[in-house]
UniProtKB/TrEMBL annotation:
Keywords: Hydrolase
Highest taxon listed in the record's lineage: Bacteria
Taxonomic lineage from the root: Bacteria, Bacillati, Actinomycetota, Actinomycetes, Kitasatosporales
Domain spans labelled AB hydrolase-1: 25-256
Protein name according to UniProt: Alpha/beta hydrolase
PANTHER family documented for this protein: AB HYDROLASE-1 DOMAIN-CONTAINING PROTEIN, MONOACYLGLYCEROL LIPASE
Molecular function, one GO term: hydrolase activity
Organism: Streptomyces hyaluromycini
Pfam family, one: Abhydrolase_6
Keyword Hydrolase tagged: yes
Amino acid sequence: MPPFLAYDDYTAYDDNHPHTTRTPLLLIHGHPFDRTMWHPQRTAFAPTRRVIAPDLRGYGASPVTPGITPLSRFAADLEELLDALGVTTCVLVGLSMGGQIAMECYARLGPERVRGLVLADTFPDPETPEGRQTRNAMADRLLREGMRGYADEVLEKMVAPHTHPDVKAHVHRMMTATNPEGAAAALRGRAERPDYRPLLTKVTVPALVVVGAADEYTPVSDAEAMHALLPDATLRIIDRASHMPNLERPEEFNRALKEFLARVDEDS
């Protein structure tokens, strides 16, 4: 794997530089995870394509900004990272919160820089009043109690029960290693997120919507509704997977991504 690098004291990331003209990938992790959740995708694609996998502000090895981190701040960080790395175009791949950040990135960068959009186990709707209250209450709880109790409670919803024990351990380890201040700041930011549905109707690049068939957080019905909004999109439902199909069923996820990237490369 490529060596750890750091940029501007706030973004930790992995990057590789194969000799290729293929469109680079920017992999955006979910909450409360880190860039290691993309290990199967980096293993599959980094030998032949530039793959950039950052730790978002407040997660992994990136420093924490307490308070509130809106999705727009995450997107601004990623834009600055792409600029610093000299990446002029890319395919955005985001899962869960990372998918919402990918939508925010598309709003900032547009089709001139984003050549493809992969939205996995996510949804574009604005937060409801009840959801806002729930996220802020969870932020308070994480600051008060830490991450372990939460991680124990949600593990079996993040991944399907039959998932390999090593994958379960990896997911649990990422959650418990996350700094509660960073997780809380992101939760408070997501509680204020805008409605991305109008944006999706105007996306002019190819899109891929992926969802685990057993996902309880973002069920198949959410993915179908999002797919219907996008003018040029493919929907892939991953059987025997829950909220993290890229880790639970990496071969199926990578196959869908590979087919999508082949089209993006052909159009570029």
